[in-house]
Amino acid sequence: MVRPIISRKVGFNPEVSYFKPRGIPMLDLEEIVLTVDEREAIRLADLQGLSHEEGGELMGVSRATFGRILRNARRIIADAIISGKAINIQGGTYEMVESPRLFNCEDCSHEWEEAPGTGRPEKCPSCGSGDIVRLKNA
Predict the structure, then answer these.
(1) I need a labelling partner for 42 at 20 to 30 A (CA). Which of 24, 36, 52, 80 fits?
(2) What CATH architecture does domain 8-96 belong to?
(3) Domain extent listing, the chain
(4) Quick one: which of 116, 129, 105, 137 has its CA closest to 44?
(5) Are strands 31-34 and 86-89 parallel, antiparallel or unpaired?
(6) CA nearest neighbour of 119 among 136, 134, 135
(7) Which spans of this chain does the record mark as coiled coil (predicted)?
(8) Which residues contact 42 (CB under 8 A, 6 or more apart)?
(9) How many CB atoms lie within 10 A of CB 60?
(10) pTM for this entry
(11) Each residue of 71-98: pLDDT tens digit?
């Protein structure tokens, strides 16, 4: 029996959804599909530097599932870059979430919200400390 795919939470949806090698006409390109949830895993792990556990929590999946999504996304991107394929970002099993994220400074106890898709804050807006923690259920 095959388990149903859990809808993955996606917190950022940029307007860009297609990439192609420069100088090659569209008719001559093979296209490969990267799903929206795979792009989200790349954003969380490779752009924001989150762990598999943190990324899985944000996407509403287990650490292991996040790792599988990320591994597949990296394979697709590598294939496109090495083989000169276009990347079409579409589909997947996901839901958009637009809830703010709550952070706490370990040094001054200041709490603040950050909009989804803005990345992990580097320092506390109150005291400038880099010792910050994302609070759960935010």
Answers:
(1) 24
(2) Orthogonal Bundle (1.10)
(3) 8-96, 101-134
(4) 116
(5) parallel
(6) 134
(7) none
(8) 70, 73, 74, 77
(9) 16
(10) 0.71
(11) 999 999 999 999 999 999 999 999 988 7
